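Renewal narrative, Specific Aim 1. Our central claim is that a sequence can be written position by position from structural information alone. The example that follows is taken directly from our test logs and has not been curated for this report. It begins with the structure tokens describing the chain, in the order in which they were read.
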């Protein structure tokens, strides 16, 4: 019998009853009531993105998540990867607190965090699973090699030419859950089109990019999928950028002051060209 949560599993692709998948896992600081706001609620408002006044949002009583995975995929990924990801998150948060107390969490600075006794392959597979959940089921269909990677706990290897998986330390007032999006980034010397998905859940933000363009702007952890075995526990030192999220646009790390300055510039340009 089909339930109200019947659909296509975002990981294995089977059509079946779906289970609730926490993104990130519940014990990674994702077990309390939250309000989520969708893009259609926000676009067109005159308020700044961090001003939630007048927005109702959708309440999630038990943390952020959706009905995206079948029971088997949910149970398997939870048993294989979630605990290692939670430990990685806890270690990151403890370091976050230290840097915060020292006043060193400054936008676009880089910090070094030492991680002890972590399982990199398990961690990156949990991150990929989260990106499957915040995107449509088509993501795992279009990229079956990533599906196979996650569904086989021992399997290793992703193409760094095709995929980039990045890490940053999150500060700011907005958390992002953004599915695959194409964006145009204009630089003094070039214009590039990037195809990426982004999710941020304190203390970290994660970026998944197809055909990577700017991996040097992040802590690139794609190698977690290539250089480590499932049962390989290691100590790692990672140099990670600090990025401030104050808007709902992917890869936008402007401070609140920068956002306000750009708003004023755009308004002045509009007035001048009426």
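The sequence written for that structure reads:
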């Amino acid at each position: 019998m089909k339930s109200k949560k019947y659909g296509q599993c975002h990981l294995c692709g089977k059509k079946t009853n779906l289970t609730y998948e926490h993104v990130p896992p519940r014990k990674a600081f994702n077990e309390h009531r939250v309000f989520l706001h969708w893009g259609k609620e926000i676009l067109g408002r005159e308020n700044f993105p961090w001003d939630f006044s007048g927005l109702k949002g959708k309440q999630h009583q038990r943390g952020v998540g959706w009905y995206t995975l079948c029971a088997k995929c949910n149970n398997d990924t939870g048993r294989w990867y979630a605990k290692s990801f939670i430990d990685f998150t806890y270690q990151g948060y403890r370091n976050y607190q230290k840097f915060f107390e020292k006043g060193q969490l400054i936008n676009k600075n880089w910090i070094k965090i030492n991680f002890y006794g972590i399982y990199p392959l398990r961690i990156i597979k949990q991150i990929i699973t989260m990106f499957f959940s915040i995107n449509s089921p088509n993501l795992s269909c279009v990229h079956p090699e990533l599906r196979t990677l996650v569904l086989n706990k021992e399997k290793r290897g992703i193409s760094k030419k095709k995929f980039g998986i990045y890490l940053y330390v999150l500060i700011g007032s907005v958390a992002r859950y953004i599915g695959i999006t194409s964006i145009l980034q204009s630089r003094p010397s070039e214009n590039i089109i990037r195809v990426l998905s982004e999710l941020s859940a304190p203390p970290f933000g994660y970026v998944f990019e197809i055909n990577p363009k700017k991996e040097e702007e992040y802590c690139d952890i794609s190698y977690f999928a290539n250089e480590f075995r499932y049962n390989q526990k290691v100590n790692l030192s990672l140099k990670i950028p600090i990025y401030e999220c104050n808007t709902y646009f992917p890869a936008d790390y402007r401070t609140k002051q920068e956002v306000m300055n750009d708003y004023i510039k755009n308004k002045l340009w509009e007035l001048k060209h009426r």
